[in-house]
Design a protein that fits this description.
The complex is a heterodimer. By secondary structure, chain A is an alpha+beta fold. Chain A has 3 domains: 12-147 and 241-364 and 433-453, Zn peptidases (Aminopeptidase), CATH 3.40.630.10; 186-222 and 368-424, no CATH class; 458-575, Immunoglobulin-like (Sandwich), CATH 2.60.40. Chain A is built from 12 helices and 23 strands. Chain A has an 8-stranded mixed beta sheet, sandwiched between helices. In chain A, strands 15-16-21-18-19 form a 5-stranded antiparallel beta sheet, with no helix packed on it. In chain A, β13 and β14 (417-424) form a beta hairpin. The longest helix of chain A has 17 residues, at 310-326. The chains are: A alpha+beta, B alpha+beta.
Chain lengths: 576, 669
């Protein structure tokens, strides 16, 4: 087969068949369609142009195939530098086939910017937070989803060649669009001893045979040819390096964690993002959007990562449980316990290595794209057999006019002879129907905004100045946080990842004699520091406060400064 | 009071110091700076254009080049040996050895390049190594990445200070109630930690020489730099230390080497020149659960499907059989089962690799004896996290050896008088089971005589042995350490050895008026004195040991086609049986290589011309070839006219290639 010809056919097919590209003359963002690679960039450029005072668009590096990784920053410079405000990081599509994650990222950016003038709560957020948004992490394979023959299940990997079948050749046996329709579908072959048969009510659907039944079909797998003649089909496609297993916290090699890559951050995009993230220590929360499942996931992702400190878990629980209400049907879960073990994922890297809270958002719920009354749990095996599939067909037939599924069609396979090709098309199964996009985007963006609102806002106030005699005065100040996210995670404090928040008192006419943290105001218990009493290192907890005490000699004006890595800076002037 | 007098007397003695590390301008007798090494390598590459190429793999944070020289002969694709020297930056002899090896391979040993290429990184940590030549000298060898060690509002603000201006950062001691340290009896310089449980009262506090620059009450807690690339590799990496780096491969130096290695699958072996030595004995690996147990539980969800007891542990061999039955496949390997069990990364050398390794250690010891270098010396340190040599074996899957070229010699001691209890040597020879069989009484006697401490009761020791937490070897080691300490008046073994070797390696304590501590004394070990011999000794040490490194290349696996049998099955149908063998000493891949799925096993391809293929594959991998003649049979059934030629080729990647053409005739060779 001529690959170029196939590609050509694919491109032209996509051009005519997918009604998802936005109208060219309207650059305002709409969320009733999918943005392909260039369109995402155009959308970001449009937002950057339109809101140039508040936004920055730049490439933080290039992928294996030379595509730029675009970072979109939202910050109001009038209210301060981005790094002086709590930062919220949002990315999407680390797995190239999970395309709708980019739409959620675009939605967040668009919502914040277009509503700044009209919604006071949004103005408040934009003025007091910085947002770092990378809509497409896996720039290569998300682009290829639109450019190449696609399947909802192809393109998770980074485009780093890998010898999956360990035969000395890398990527030599990929999936192929053998019938040239621009999509990678399923292949089946007639076989009376096969383990599938056609559903009596809907012949498009196959069900498993039961003991005593003869079969009708054998499923061969995804469309393709056994290019390397090793008796296995499509077993060595492009990659496989899973960028969400290539990050640095307790990274495990590929023989322990499939898809881990050669070494931590060996993929270019991972390196670029890690290098970027450590330049923004103000980031206090991150969202990484994936599909699918309808989940809000937190770590730990593996036993190796250990337990999270209980005060950090409380923060997660507060936000996650609220998230379940903002996103009806979504479940808030712990990745390593409720799903499966992962090593080297982004979320663990951010929390365990860098002390930054974060959620993985698993977009898309399959239950939304079936006839609800027919939705039984247990899949094909449940009674009546194939109910899930037939109800999905009905949804496709009656809500998408049958465009989610391609009916089986005979094809003469060069190796297997007469077969049939058909099945669920690229825009199905985990990539949602465009008419459902706006609500999904809005609800997920709402969780991002809710969380952003709960980034630490520290209030600094004077509690007392008390003359304690002999020319000495006791000064007590309070730094409090009415939000869920503390100024530093307990994990960051324990592992000494950052400098802690610094509270200092200074004044030309004063001498600081003693200083410490007031552990208990009522019982008057103070934890004094041994050195440099003018400077107290601390952190401000979730929904809590720290009281600081100094004993000073002298008169005049003194300034108390609060200086935090993740919770901004501020000061208070006291007249002594 | 006598102690105090002695102290004062000693402090006023005027002394001379043997100054090393020696500054670069002192000619041949000096160690070479990273810049000098760079010039030497560049000249070598210029003078040997056909055989050498100097590659720049990147820059350090300190803006130094990360250099690697490639040496090659007639075959530009020959298997290669990667040498990573001085990754930790504190081992000048490793760098000298790497340069000397480069020079030898381009002159006297040039013919070696016809069979193997060499990739030599002479200075793995250029920033850290540059510190070796700094004045004042300070035993720090991290790279120049800024690290805020004390997590305050400044980075690198509280490094050491050469208060007495002698060019060395040594130690400060001060008589203080907090104490903890005391002088070693009859020794003018050595200090030891007081053992309060033996009634010792430590009168001194001990600090590194310096002042508390940032006034936080701690001295020298945030010096310049950095991370140590030699601890930054991804096998068993340890997070959250101040010097290991932020994550594995976070440093430019380690990343450059990793990238280079993975881009060169022809690398057949990795040699680390540094402070560790894995040729003296097979490393025991790191402790840990996971892939090193002998038996495992089946995860609950899998156990239910397989119908086995999830609470019972099964031996690995039995689990393989269970997995074969469950999957209906006969190709299940132990490694696959370990993966399914989620057993985690390997932590100990594969049992099937160790016999090869043991043979090599035997040869190494013989060689060292022959070279007259078998005198007693301090044990090289045993690194357990993030080391290059571990990564090369456990993740890169190739034979990997670490070699040091020197540690401080240890003065031979006279024989110890006999006691009734067993000696450490006797214990070491016993297996764990034999030791346990001695019974609690005998073990108790030994433990008491060895004085390993009251915390080790016989019962606990037996439990620890059974649980795999300790071995007889480890017990013997502990006993020996204790023994040595007793002999040297309680001085630390390393300190005492260095003192015996060169008393001038210590600065005699002298009074100093410290700005914040008040009256202190400055003195103690000169930085690097224990890490490198005087430069004058370097050349001979390296020249004597490099021939063994040369012989390691001769142990590499090498694929060959040993035999091809042709039988006529029918008129024009031919059965071909061929045997691919490994003519080298080492297996290909290593057994750990099979576990970590790299490198690729040898691939056999058949060029059958116009013959039709009835059975067999045109291209196939043959799996692991054991060392020293290990073989795999590859067969085909072809239909072709008599006399047709076929060609069988083997690509062993880093184990060479082979090819044979035969004609289809009855009884062909």
């Amino acid at each position: 087969m001529n690959k170029n010809l196939i590609r050509l056919a694919v491109v032209s097919f996509i051009a005519v068949s997918i009604p998802f590209s936005p109208a060219a003359d309207d650059t305002r963002l709409t969320f009733d369609h999918y943005y392909d690679g260039p369109a995402v960039l155009e959308a970001l450029q449009y937002l950057n142009r339109t809101y140039s005072d508040y936004t920055e668009l730049r490439s933080i590096g290039q992928s294996e195939e030379g595509r730029d990784i675009w970072l979109f920053t939202i910050n109001n410079p009038v209210t301060g530098r981005d790094t002086d405000k709590p930062g919220i990081y949002v990315d999407g599509t680390i797995h190239g086939n999970e395309i709708q994650a980019a739409e959620v990222c675009l939605y967040v950016a668009n919502y914040l910017l277009t509503s700044y003038d009209t919604i006071p709560a949004i103005k408040e957020l934009v003025d007091n937070r910085s947002f770092y948004i990378i809509p497409i992490v896996n720039v290569d394979n998300r682009a290829r989803f639109f450019e190449d023959a696609a399947s909802y299940s192809i393109g998770r990997t980074a485009r780093v060649p890998f010898d999956d079948d360990r035969d000395g050749l890398a990527d030599e046996d990929p999936d192929e669009d053998i019938d040239g329709d621009g999509e990678i579908l399923q292949m089946r072959i007639k076989d009376p001893f096969g383990d599938r048969k056609s559903h009596p009510d809907d012949p498009r659907v196959m069900i498993r045979t039961e003991p005593g039944e003869l079969g009708e079909w054998r499923v061969l797998g995804r469309e393709g040819i056994d290019n390397d003649n090793d008796g296995r089909l499509n077993e060595d496609g492009p990659g496989y390096l899973d960028m969400n297993r290539n990050y640095g916290f307790k990274w495990q090699p590929p023989y322990v964690q499939g898809g881990a890559g050669e070494f931590p951050m060996s993929a270019r995009v991972n390196k670029a993002i890690a290098d970027f993230v450590i330049t923004k220590p103000n980031i206090c929360f991150d969202f990484a959007f994936h599909n699918s499942g309808g989940l809000i996931v937190r770590g730990p992702g593996s036993k190796l990562a250990g337990h999270y400190p209980s005060s950090d878990v409380a923060v997660y629980d507060f936000l996650g449980e609220e998230g379940e209400k903002i996103l009806p049907g979504y479940r808030y879960i712990i990745g390593g316990q409720d799903m499966y073990t992962t090593h080297g994922d982004f979320d663990e890297f951010m929390f365990s290595n860098l002390g930054i809270f974060g959620f993985v958002g698993e977009l898309f719920m399959g239950s939304q794209e079936r006839y609800p009354s027919d939705t039984g749990r247990g899949g094909d095996e449940s009674y009546p057999r194939g109910r899930r599939e037939t109800s999905k067909q009905k949804f496709s037939d009656n809500l998408t006019q049958g465009t989610m599924f391609r009916d089986w069609k005979e094809f003469d396979h060069p190796q297997y002879g007469k077969i049939e090709i058909g099945g669920w098309r690229p825009y199905s199964s985990r990539i949602g129907q465009p008419f459902l996009l706006p609500e999904m985007c809005h609800r997920n963006a709402s969780l991002v905004l809710f969380t952003a609102r709960h980034a630490p806002d520290i209030t600094l106030e004077l509690l007392e100045v008390k003359d304690i005699g002999n020319g000495l005065r006791r000064v007590r100040v309070r730094a409090s946080n009415e939000n869920a996210i503390p100024s530093l995670s307990q994990n960051a404090v324990r592992r000494k990842i950052y400098r802690k928040d610094m509270l200092t008192i200074a004044g030309s006419g004063i001498e600081v004699v003693s200083g410490g943290t007031v552990d208990d105001l009522v019982f008057d218990r103070v934890d004094y520091v041994d050195h440099r009493p003018e400077r107290i290192f601390t952190s401000i907890p979730s929904f809590g406060k720290r009281d600081i005490q100094w004993i000073v000699r002298g008169r005049g004006r003194a300034t108390v400064t609060y200086d935090a890595i993740k919770a901004g800076n501020q000061s208070l002037t006291i007249d002594l | 009071m006598t102690k105090m007098t002695k102290l004062i007397v000693l402090s006023v003695i005027v002394f001379s110091l043997a100054l090393y590390p020696v500054a670069a301008d002192e000619g041949d007798s000096a160690y070479k700076t990273p810049d000098q090494i760079k010039r030497i390598l560049r000249d070598l590459a210029d003078q040997n254009k056909n055989n050498a190429q100097l590659l720049n793999l990147g820059k350090t944070v300190g803006d130094r080049d990360i250099l690697l020289i490639e040496l090659k002969g007639s075959d530009a694709t020959a298997p290669a040996i990667l040498v990573a020297a001085n990754m930790e930056g504190n081992c000048p002899l490793a760098t000298e050895a790497a340069v000397e090896l480069t020079e030898l391979l381009l002159t006297e040993w040039k013919t070696d390049l016809d069979t193997h290429r060499w990739f030599i990184m002479a200075v793995g940590n250029p920033d850290g190594y540059a510190r070796f030549f700094d004045s004042p000298t300070h035993a720090s060898f991290v790279n120049d990445r800024p690290v805020n060690d004390d997590k305050d509002d400044a980075t690198g603000e509280d490094g050491p200070d050469d208060l007495n201006g002698d060019g060395f950062i040594t130690q400060m001691r001060q008589l203080h109630p907090e104490g903890g340290w005391m002088m070693v009896e009859d020794n003018p310089v050595l200090m030891k930690k007081a053992e309060t449980d033996r009634g010792e009262d430590g009168m001194y506090r001990l600090f590194e020489e310096g002042i508390d620059n940032d006034g936080d009450g701690r001295i020298n807690e945030d010096g310049p730099g950095g991370a140590n690339p030699g601890r930054n590799f991804p096998h068993n990496f340890r997070h959250f230390t101040t010097t290991n780096g932020l994550w594995a491969a976070s440093e430019n130096e380690s990343r450059a080497l990793l990238r280079f290695a993975f881009d060169h699958p022809e690398i057949a072996m990795v040699l680390t020149f540094g402070r560790a030595n894995s040729l003296r004995e097979v490393p025991s690996g790191s402790r840990g659960v996971g892939a090193t147990q002998d038996s495992y539980k089946v995860p609950r969800w899998m156990a239910r499907r397989m119908g086995v007891d999830p609470d019972k542990k099964f031996p690995l061999s039995e689990l393989v059989e269970m997995a074969k039955e469950f999957t209906g496949s006969q190709d299940i390997t132990e490694d696959q089962v370990l993966q399914w069990l989620g057993a985690g990364a390997a932590t100990k050398p594969n049992k099937k690799d160790t016999p090869y390794w043991e043979e090599i250690t035997k040869r190494y010891k013989d060689f060292i004896k022959e070279a007259g270098l078998n005198g007693k010396r301090l044990d090289p340190p045993d690194f357990s996290s993030g080391a290059v040599e571990d990564w090369a074996y456990y993740q890169f899957g190739v034979p990997s050896f670490a070699v040091d070229f020197w540690t401080v010699p240890v003065k031979e001691k006279e024989e110890k008088k006999e006691t009734g209890a067993l000696s450490p040597d006797e214990i070491e020879k016993m297996s764990n089971e034999e030791f346990i069989e001695l019974g609690t009484e005998k073990i108790g006697e030994f433990l008491e005589a060895a004085g390993v401490g009251a915390q080790y009761t016989p019962e606990m020791t037996i439990q620890a042995l059974q649980g795999g937490m300790i071995t007889t070897k480890k017990i013997a080691e502990m006993a020996r350490k204790k023994e040595k300490k007793e002999e040297s008046g309680g001085a630390d073994e390393e300190d005492q050895a260095l003192y015996d070797y060169n008393p001038d390696a210590f600065v005699i304590w002298q009074e100093y008026d410290h700005p914040t501590l008040g009256k202190v004394e400055i003195g103690g070990k000169i930085p690097y004195a224990d890490l490198a011999p005087p430069p004058a000794e370097a050349d001979s040490l390296v020249t004597k040991q490099l021939p063994f490194i040369r012989t390691l290349a001769g142990l590499l696996p090498q694929v060959a086609i040993e035999k091809i049998e042709i039988a006529q099955r029918s008129r024009d149908v031919w059965e071909i049986n061929s045997w691919v063998v490994n003519e080298g000493f080492l297996p290909y891949p290593t057994h750990q290589g099979e576990r970590c799925q790299r490198p690729t096993p040898a691939v056999v391809t058949l060029d059958r011309g116009s013959a039709a293929l009835l059975e067999g594959k045109e291209r196939q991998t043959v799996g692991l070839l054991d060392g020293s003649g290990g073989s795999k049979k590859v067969s085909w059934l072809l239909q072709a006219g008599r006399g047709s030629d076929i060609t069988i080729s083997v690509n062993g990647f880093s184990a060479g290639t082979a090819e044979q053409t035969v004609s289809l005739v009855e009884g062909g060779k």
